[in-house]
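#random but structural
TW: two for the price of one
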Amino acid sequence: MSAEALTATEYITHHLTHLSSTKQSSIIDFSVINFDTLFFSILMLVTALWLMYRGAKKATSGVPGKWQCAVEMLVEMVDEQAKSIVHGDRTFIAPLALTVFVWVALMNAIDLIPVDLLPMIAGWFGIHYLRPLPTADLNGTLGISVGVLFLMIYYGIKIKGFGGFTHELFTAPFGSHPLLMPFNLALNLIEYLAKTVSLGMRLFGNMYAGELVFFLIALLGSIWVGFDALSVFGVVGHAVAGICWWLFHVLIVLLQAFIMMMLTLVYIGQAHEGH
């Protein structure tokens, strides 16, 4: 679907519509299944696991190649961050953080593909709506953050025991007086909820905003009506703004993946410690 065939509002609305289980998909309706988010999330996860498997399989004790050097630098970076944050067994946590970083980075990188390309290809197969960026869907980012929440609870119980974990919920941070227990429980539940929501919302907000900017830049190229000043300005502005924002967005893609990884480590690290 080209920008020329639609008004600006219709163009953006079309690109913000998911291939979903209903005709209309709201970003806050969790009863709706967004098939495009599921497809591209799983595809990028499989790609991330394959890339890491390929790097491990081709590792050699001799002179490393460029790919092995890149993988080793990434693994070492993640491992150092895990060591500084999580004080305990990191056998599962460090690989988890590496997976989160690579997976989120690959999902974010979909935003670097021209906004009309994948929907156009989908249109060839009769798919009228496709929103390929999973991290611009709140359902997807909150799904990741809920997974982190489960890990926080799991490690809290594993490290402190079920009794210790429950005791901390009712006695921290104000103390163990019975009158204070409801306030302690409420505050701890709010803390878990706030961590989960903020983790998902942070990634969603940044990628959603970046996606909208790409749509607006794409619209600049649609105002061509002839060799007049406005048309030339639109085409030149489309090219210049598109290149500049694309280059800047590369940093956003990697930065948001790094932040997601770091917060995952921080929250799991906090589950290892008491109040």
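TW: number two ↓
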Amino acid sequence: MIALNNFTFSYQQHPALHHISGRFARGSLTAVIGPNGSGKSTLLKSLAGLLPGQHKRHAASLQWAAPHPRMAYLPQISDVDRTFPITVQDCVLLGCWGRVGAFSGVDAGALAQVSGALHTVGLQGLEHRTLGTLSSGQLQRVLFARLLVQDADLILLDEPFNAVDSKTTASLLALIALWHQQRRTVIAVLHDDAQVRQHFPQTLLLAREMVAWGPTPEVLTEANLARSRAMAQAWDEDAALCERAA
């Protein structure tokens, strides 16, 4: 579905990702892991087209299969403004935006989709609660319900289990497994190696460069993990821009 060829992305003249090459196959379930600051979220936001234009990337190094997939993106829970006065139902209804648009009304079909999605994530009866009244686990379930309504071919998840209790994590992992069975392409930024080993068949290990990419047992070796930690310790935040990224 997505091919990266020498993909490089820079912030303020310093590459956050160096020369990443590989592919996310259609229907694959891939974890993206690595030390803090290794470019994991940058990669996801770049795929989602969310990074500002002044940041530099080479579009030719990012290739999509045709037709371009329908995409859904889950931000880090810390990026969600919980003070915004929006109800659970309205937040999930935003998942219909791509089909309904700005000037169409919400019909019974859309409301039924929202109701079904909230039931799937165990939040039926909370439709009229505001986001600020929810626990972190409940909020993450709301965001997953919105993903369900979006019905996307490609699902990008940025640290979906941070600040979420174990029961909610297990429930959401089951939903991700269902998406995988449905041949949707799922890419998730994660930190828990054991979780990755148990639930994600493919892994991309980053340390601003690609350390390894492939079947999880072949990627999450002690040698690869040690290499990623060593690369992180050697980062020089004042280094000059990589010439091949210029």
